[in-house]
């Protein structure tokens, strides 16, 4: 690739040299600046092979802005993080450019993907640093799973954000503002929310285009869903009017348990009229095993039916976006 070709690729994206450098940095974990882009375009410096390869990779779709998805339920241990990690990996496998934001101080997604919280924190590459220390997102993301997608790691420091955000002007809009800077670098940005409806979850709902609600198929698990739906309705009324709900993802389902089957039937009866209910994620030891192996479950499950619901969600997202594009065209 020569200078004029690189320039044509940049202009085709509608990027300034600065925006192009930021996009490359987000994709490749580098620190290029606009001067470097200018030297490549002018032919005074050789274009790295990895940059040429990235620009030649056919991408099925380059949209203007990423679709931002909050994965939320104020109940803990219902499979939010598993859904976030696996849907991110499934979208990446389908050729999408994906950023997973760990928005939970418990940092389960960060741990699941084998990233050291201490190192991320030391380097200022965490959601906390992005939201409260002015760290640009593009400088904080970490490539994971052999570079297939990016993670914005979390640490326990983020627990301080709950009170610090309350002191910020428009403190529920901080994540939305910070993510806007990388909206062009990704097709999907997934937000793994903490298990409560505090400032971080409100930030995620304000930043999102849509919400996926994982619900465990156990007795009483759906009791918290109306409160979450009510919160989503308020967020819609107060500033994010287009916030939609992708649907409910039933999780940890054991088909041979009468109770699980009854809960799934209840869930469908109560919410199936207005919300999509995805196929249930079965309960399986492969989930904790994949966490221990620091791999997405979709990459290691020997039985594809165990992880099929994540692929179903990933495909439905891509389909919905394509339909939307066709409607706009
Ligand atoms: N389908 C499943 N079957 C068995 N264990 C699961 C399943 N999904 C998640 N887990 C395990 O349950 C625990 C909680 O899941 P997690 O995704 O972290 O929930 P949350 O993010 O809602 O707190 C984790 O240890 C995870 O490995
Ligand atoms: Mg979690």
Could you explain how this protein is built, in words?
The protein has helices at 3-13, 17-28, 34-42, 49-56, 80-93, 108-112, 117-122, 127-132, 137-140, 161-166, 174-180, 199-207, 225-237, 258-271, 286-292, 297-300, 304-328, and strands at 67-71, 98-102, 142-144, 149-152, 188-192, 210-216, 244-251. It has 329 residues and is an alpha/beta fold. The chain folds into 2 domains: 3-56; 67-328, 3-Layer(aba) Sandwich (Rossmann fold), CATH 3.40.50.300. A 7-stranded mixed β-sheet has the order 3-4-2-5-1-6-7, sandwiched between helices. Strand 6, helix 13 (225-237) and strand 7 (244-251) form a beta-alpha-beta unit. It is globular and about 70 Å long. Adenosine-5'-diphosphate binds at residues 76-82, 108, 195, 251-252, 281, 283-284, 287-288, 291.
Summarize the SSE layout with pairings:
Elements: H1 3-13, H2 17-28, H3 34-42, H4 49-56, E1 67-71, H5 80-93, E2 98-102, H6 108-112, H7 117-122, H8 127-132, H9 137-140, E3 142-144, E4 149-152, H10 161-166, H11 174-180, E5 188-192, H12 199-207, E6 210-216, H13 225-237, E7 244-251, H14 258-271, H15 286-292, H16 297-300, H17 304-328
Parallel strand pairs: 1-5, 1-6, 2-4, 2-5, 6-7
Antiparallel strand pairs: 3-4
Helix pairs in contact: 1-3, 2-3, 5-17, 11-12
The chain binds adenosine-5'-diphosphate and magnesium ion (MG).
